[in-house]
Amino acid sequence: MSRGATAYIGLGSNLGDRRENLRRALQALASVAEISVRRVASLYRTAPIGITDQPEFLNTVVEISTTLTPRVLLVRLLQIENELGRVREEKWGPRVIDLDLLLYDDMEIVTEDLEIPHPRLEQRGFVVAPLAELAADMVLPSGVSAAVLADKLRQEQSVVRVKDGGWAD
User: Fold this and answer.
1) Among this protein's residues, is 100 annotated catalytic?
2) Is 169 assigned a catalytic role?
3) Using one digit for the tens of pLDDT, what is the confidence trace for 109-123?
4) What average pLDDT score do residues 38-46 get?
5) CATH number of the CATH domain containing 33
6) Does any domain span residue 89?
7) What span, in angstroms and rounded, lies between the C-alpha atoms of 123 and 127?
8) Catalytic (active site) residue 164
9) What is the pLDDT of residues 125-153, one digit of tens each?
10) What was the pLDDT predicted at 2?
């Protein structure tokens, strides 16, 4: 595969064997010919947002290289969710797997079904902490580095690293 674009995907699970769900999602991503998984952050245990009466999540972020367009990548992420048993019953409800397209190169896209950077990226410690692990100096849309924002969000939200990188091996 040619070098392609750099994208960051957020992964989360709070139903069933959460770690195995994340591992299966990574395997599914890696099996797509147009995607090369470059790096995977540690696992983080995080409290649910929105609907709080549900199990804790395990989250991570993956850096990929892809020749897929952002829209086609989003479609592929949704297909992987469906293949792994994702059921969309209620917004912010429990889920076997959640794959969010966070960033795609330096692109800014706002359409009805796709927004890059992800619209709530900088409000979510469960995304920013693992993102900062992979790209600490990355300047986020607000002008703050991922590392600085991760430190701030860790003080406000329950974001605990539970497994170092390499957990998916």
Assistant:
1) yes
2) no
3) 999 889 999 989 999
4) 94
5) 3.30.70.560
6) yes
7) 9
8) no
9) 999 999 999 999 999 999 999 999 999 99
10) 52
